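Entry 14. Structure prediction run on the chain below.
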Amino acid sequence: MTAKIPRAVRNNNPGNIREAAGDKTQWVGERATDDDSEFEEYETAAHGFRAIARTLLTYKRAYGLTTVAGIISRYAPPKENDTPKYIAFVSRLLQCEPDQTIDVENRATMIVLCSAIARKESGYRPGGADWFALEDIAAGVDMALHPA
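Output returned:
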């Protein structure tokens, strides 16, 4: 039996970033077609990781969110998620406390944070492997941290 490929993987949207109603933002690397009316779609997984990283940088710069608890409470609100479990999962992978300050402008931190979000949003392949390659995560983070 073939495993069902998660929506996040099909859309190259590892963070399951939603389409905002009425939002005309055109993400770098966004697909020209709009086949999924609820979620953003990207040309590559790296572009999807860039979008996660840009979102998290905005959370820091515009809203002052610098802890896993603060970031994930905004990213994955309780109306749609089990936010406390999400926070615990991400904190465990980052090896930090939920209310500990993290530096999302640090490449290594951002790579682990984006990877954790992708794992939570898309799960794992049958057998336990990640759906997304580390190279795509790093490329997306690099695009976000060092825009051309």
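Residues 7-20+31-145 form one domain.
Filed with the rest of this week's runs.
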